[in-house]
Amino acid sequence: MRKTYLITAALIAAFIIGCSKRSGEQVHHPKLPAGTVDLGAVELVPQTPTQFSLGAGKNCILTGKQLQGSVDVKMDLFVTNVDGTVEHSSGEVSVSPGMKTVISIGSVPVGFAPTLKTP
Q: How far apart are CA 74 and CA 49, in angstroms?
């Protein structure tokens, strides 16, 4: 009986700790537009392009750089058409580190929460 009580107490404590907001964390979960490809949390190396597959012949390259208090992310979008031609578009956004954002280029919205890896 005592063993069951201790296990239950430990599970409840782990749940409470896991659900609590830690000091300094940014918690913001905006509703993403319909059809958004959500990359989730992405860690970028400053000034180094990182490629992501978006499915259906679409790829993007994210390149981040540090600004004062924010991360500037450039997105290059590549869409391969049925005839094999590739269309290129780009966009850019500045966001607080770890905050979810969306860059929408044409009909391709891409959501992510960027952070920069420190060298």
A: 9
